[in-house]
Amino acid sequence: MEKAIMVKGLQKSYKQHHVLKGVDFEVSKGSIFALLGSNGAGKTTVVKILSTLLKPDSGTVTVNGFDVASKPGQVRQSISLTGQFAAVDEILTGRENLIMIARLRHLANPRQVADDLLKRFGLTDAADRKPSTYSGGMRRRLDIALSLVGSPPVLFLDEPTTGLDPEARIEVWKIVKELADGGTTVFLTTQYLEEAEQLAGQIAILHEGRIIASGTLAELKQLFPKAQVEYVEKQPTLEEIFLAIIGHKEAM
Ligand SMILES: Nc1ncnc2c1ncn2[C@@H]1O[C@H](COP(=O)(O)OP(=O)(O)OP(=O)(O)O)[C@@H](O)[C@H]1O
Ligand SMILES: [Mg+2]
């Protein structure tokens, strides 16, 4: 299968701090790839290198067929990045934010592009308000909508659902799935194992500077011995207690 991202022997240090010690992975076109790792593992560092914001010390990285070191301009034209912290402008309204990015990307009809994305992300009613009045989920949706202006083939999402409530998280998952179904390659980082389970065809775990495990969820599950089933006394849930009390009262 054709590769949207190829990373080989990637190393990066911040002064003495050797963060990436030889990272290797590949991402197929149109797939969702999740990079897992604890705080400080180097996930954002990987995203920054892949999106040309940071230079690697060594190794080769290609995105959409372009080398990040020798063809950074072409890489940038192929990608968009939704960073770990929301990058929306607070003075402009949601609609104006989108129109501004569409103009910066030299698109033909910025207003139409903005209207289409607002509709797709359920933000039409909120379009003419400033993001400061949005909920966390709405801001994140606007943030992702902004990164889709111009339909880049490769999308980087650095912890797209951190801080969102479960409902907003499910909404973002739905959007990400739709994007991949439409052929976009999605590279995301997350600390939520469930997020990777829900979304990613391929999962890689970054730990102490290297990918220590990677594969599909099924492949990763095989790395662990099957759990022994033990006899454990089952405690009633609050719901069961509640139902029992209600039933008891009704029976009286
Ligand atoms: N500009 C920088 N200068 C020095 N050290 C840095 C810099 N950026 C990151 N680091 C260090 O590199 C390590 C990896 O950071 P990075 O942000 O890539 O981790 P992360 O996996 O994204 O973490 P988190 O889950 O908290 O977002 C951390 O120890 C961090 O302190
Ligand atoms: Mg990070």
Automatic annotation (TrEMBL):
Keywords: ATP-binding, Nucleotide-binding, Transport. Pfam families: ABC_tran (PF00005). Residues 5-233 form the ABC transporter domain. The keyword Nucleotide-binding applies. The keyword Oxidoreductase does not apply. It comes from the Bacteria. Belongs to the ABC transporter superfamily. This is ATP-binding cassette domain-containing protein. It comes from Paenibacillus aurantius. The lineage of its organism: Bacteria, Bacillati, Bacillota, Bacilli, Bacillales.
